[in-house]
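Many introductory courses stop at the sequence. We go one step further.
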Amino acid sequence: MANSNAVSLHKPRTSYLTRLKVPNYLWVLGLLLFLWFTPAPAGLELKAWHLFAVFVSTIVAIIMNLLPMGALSIIALAICGITDTLSIKQALSAFSNNVMWLILIAFLLARGFIKTGLGTRIAYYFVLHMGKSTLGLAYGLITTEFLLAPFTPSNTARGAGIVYPIVSSLAEEYQSTPKQKTERKIGSYLMKLAYQTNVITSAMFLTATAGNPLITNIATKLGYDISWTTWAIAAIIPGVINLALLPWILFILYPPQLKLTPEAPQFARQKLAQMGPLTKQEWVMLGTFGLLLTLWVLGTYLSIDATVAALVGLSLLLVTKVLTWDDILKEQNAWHTFIWLSTLLMMSTYLAEFGMINWFSENVQAWVGSLHWLVALCIIGSVYFYSHYAFASMTAHISSMYGAFAVVAIAAGAPPMLVILALAFLSSLCAGITHYGTGSAPVYFGAEYITLKDWWRLGAIISIMNITIWMLAGSFWWKFIGLW
């Protein structure tokens, strides 16, 4: 009996608390309490510091996968409310944000593509003409994004509403889905590639995303004018190089299991023949898609918001019964993403409003004041780029930091136009580092083809490639065409 007890004393404990990974919870709780009770830095309001503590702790908890992101977001909202860091109206403010609703509707529109079979048909056409290899499909998607970018002033509408349904259908057709545990076959690669392409094309044209006109407005106030043509010419060389290299780099970093598909075009041809002509529902979906594309392209001139256009499209699908209300309710990923992204957007918005970003910018200026302009610009650019970890919106990032950082870099002696352009392009490229960096990110991530760890790992590595290409090739190109 004694021997039995002695043995039991050496058995590993598998208590309920251990299974819940209590040490991880304690790490996050400890981080929150440490930051909360640490005195706020000089010049920063206590409320801003407390919100920063909640924000950082939430991000760490997400990275450690303590609970689903939606659940962690609810907890963060509760902490903000119970501690009076934010009023309940402030805490819930992002749930009425138009971009959040655009992201939600993009998920639902994608369901229409899949349900009607139109997405499958489009996927087969891609396979027919470019499907002899995974790289061929990759360049097909890149070409689509590149051609749409100048005419679609919402990268969320373009990436999430137009390209994502095609990528999703392609993955489905190759039987590469998270449900089947076959996402690495080809789906994961295409999802990550499509998102990173969306980020790059956003940097290439003034009208490719909502934040870019804001940059030109800030630049004009600083005394420097950037026209649509100037922006496009400046971005074309580094942008095309970036797009050309991306499929190959990602092919090495995150290789798909399916690399060559020589029989795919013939297979696609047979499938298209079996599908026959477009069905009534496909025609409705195609017409809705065409209307949405038109409204997104011409929305600036017609004064129609991209989210309003998306609501019109979704309404048409409901009225024509292409989608049912049950279809809407069953899109769990859509509602899950809506909750966690709205929470992160809200916190990043109020961090800026409470002065956290201005305080941060002032400290950066103090650090680089005595350095050579080239060193100062590298530091400022890097800090500006990677500070996007604290933002869930490119527009919020630009409005909070672009002007201040541009002024600091110019004051350090850097050529003004070089500063304006470098920070302008970094403003879009930085969105590639996280799963919440811009509106299209949560749509691609929410499809669950890529783990959080891989998303952040790949985002960090690709960010170095993007910065290197744009700052080296870009600066030489801008010098050659006389912009600085």
